[in-house]
Amino acid sequence: ERERTAQTLDPMASPTAHGGDSPHLVQPALCGNESTDDSEDNDEENIYRETRSERKPTASTAIPGAASFELTDHSGEETEDSGEGSSSEDSAVGAGGVSKKGIFSRSQRGACFGFGAQYFAVGLIYGGLPATLYGFFLGYLNVPGYVYSTATVICYLPWSFKFFFGLINDTMPIRGLRRKPYMVIGWSLCAFMLVAISQTSLPPPYWCIDSATGEYVKTKIDSVGIKHVADPCHPDTAKEGGRFAMLMMLAALGYVIADVAADGLTTEYAKAEPMETRGSTQTTAYLTRTIGQACSVLFVGLCMNGKQYNGSFSWSLSYSTVCGVFAIPAALMVPISAWFVVEPGASESRKNQSLGEYLEMCWELLKSKALFFVILYNFFTPVVSNITTTASAQVKKEWAGVQNFQNQMFTLVGCLLFAGGLWLVKKRFLHTSWRMMLAITSIILQCVDSFFSTMTIFDVVRNQYFYLGETVLLELPMAANFVISTFVIVEMADDGNEGMVYGLLTTTSNLGSPFARAIGNQLYALFQPSISDADNYILDKPSFRFTVFQSFMVSYGFALLSLNFLYFLPDQKKQAQHWKRTWNRRPLYGITTIVMLSCALTYGLTVNSLSMFP
């Protein structure tokens, strides 16, 4: 039976069988093996396929961030659903209490509910917390521009530790379970921090409020008709941003811990799917998360659109109330995770990997020159391209007049464009040069963005819909970059270490943004008058407009400069396989990576934390 099964199953038929964390890994992996109608490069294609087929599965697999699972031998188990083409893979989760037909079978309604609730709740908090920043930080607190930019990075900072959370999941089970306990711990922390935020007293608004209109009083006219910045009623309020940003980061830390455990569970569930439907678990999970994200963004846009929060409504929920509302689903996820989530049980052939074995496998990966080049690309591209001006937030608020509701609605449009970009790459550009695709989309984006920003800065067109139109265009190159990163992960990984490669590369990429923000805060502080001070935008002097314009040009320069790091990215799948097959391994590559990432993490955390508390 084992021999017959081995002959009929292609171990590379679907990357989700090997722990792909992202639903977009399904097509990238298939595209490496699928045949095309074109006859060119047949010999190279045959070599590529032979290289992929030469990979030998290992007895166990560690998946950081995504999951760890093992290629378990279930040949001794009896298969019942012969009509479903059941095999050893179909019964992989059966021993743990999940149907061989998958988590979505009728007999697993409770487990399916617990599983789907994880991603819906993650989507709610993942989309909801950052959505409050624009109205609360820029409107209510009126923090400097660099503080707002840093707060955005701080909210996503826990994602930089996804690899380490995956390591803990995989090597430190609690009472024999590697997923459920960490879900309970993560959601408990998230709910506790959200309740703490909701119970934290808000300082009074920075600006005085006009009793007749309910709007902030930002300007005043002197006796000779010259406009001046009005005196704030509570100037110390602008210094309170750091306290709330840190609380939000701790809340995000909680749901990231739960999300890492859920991603691990997703991979284990996917193993129970029949080959013809494999991949539906991941797709459903991330679709559910996207729905949750859309719901929270819509909720913030409608219920936090009062005039005190850069909105237009005469009523609004307070920031504290919104965080209290988000605490409800987070708290509900604690009993849901404990009672409804079904985690496959461990078998004799599926033993937990020790920390030493895990780190040894990681070290072997880091010694690869091919992976080292990809790590350099993943780290330095966001480091350089994200050294963006701190003026963008104030331009958006004061000059373009973007209100909170419109800002959230365009965020939803951006999500749709992102999905469209993924579809476009999958359908039309699977075999296009990765370097060329990223270079063209980045250059076009900078040209288009410079037009919209210049028109707004120099008061040619100042309209919120005009300005927001360019912000959604950011999603197109982001989609291309995301899907190409999944292609690279598939090509760099071998059977048995897909999740570890995913964890290393995503953590490396996530570390780039905090590091870039730290550099940007220091660089753009040199521009005078200060481009982070809202008063300068209210006065709107021609000389200051030119200063802001210069800062935007510097941002575009860094974005174009980052294209030089495309040299470290393979041009396509075949070149990636050639690098892996022919390039050597040296400890120097691993040492350089560890030192580089450690310094970036330390510098980014230190400078960004200090920025939040001026």
SS strand fraction: under 5%
Tell me the structural class.
Answer: mainly alpha
User: Secondary-structure element sequence?
Assistant: HHHHHHHHEEEEHHHHHHHHHHHHHHH
Give the rounded overall mean pLDDT: 79
Biggest beta sheet summary: 2 strands, antiparallel
User: Helix content range of the residues, please?
Assistant: 55-70%
- Global shape: globular
Number of strands: 4
What do you see in this structure?
The longest helix has 30 residues, at 241-270. Mean pLDDT is 79; it is low at 1-97. It is globular, with a radius of gyration of 25 Å. Strand 3 and strand 4 form a beta hairpin. The termini are far apart. It is 61% helix and 2% strand. The chain has 614 residues and is an all-alpha fold. It has helices at residues 2-8, 26-31, 42-53, 109-131, 133-140, 145-156, 162-171, 180-199, 241-270, 280-303, 319-339, 355-366, 369-385, 392-399, 404-428, 434-457, 464-473, 475-492, 498-524, 534-539, 542-561, 573-582, 587-612, and strands at residues 208-209, 216-217, 219-221, 227-229. The chain has a two-stranded antiparallel sheet. Helix 4 (109-131) packs antiparallel against helix 11 (319-339).
